[in-house]
Amino acid sequence: MSQPLSGRHVALLLGGLSSERDVSLVSGRECGDALERLGAKVTRVDAGRDLAQVLTKLKPDVCFNALHGEWGEDGCVQGVLETLNLPYTHSGVLASALAMDKAKSKAVLAAAGVTVPGGGLFNRFEAAADHVMPPPYVVKPNAEGSSVGVFIVLDGANRPPQDIVAPEWTYGEEVMIEPYIRGKELAVAVMNGKALTVTDIVPRSGFYDYEAKYGDGGSEHILPAKIPLKTLAKAMELAERAHAALGCRGVTRSDLRYDDINDILVLLEVNTQPGMTPTSLVPEQAALKGVDFDNLVLWITEDAYARGAAGGIASFSETPG
Question: Record-annotated residues binding Mg(2+) 1 (predicted)?
Answer without folding.
Answer: 255, 269
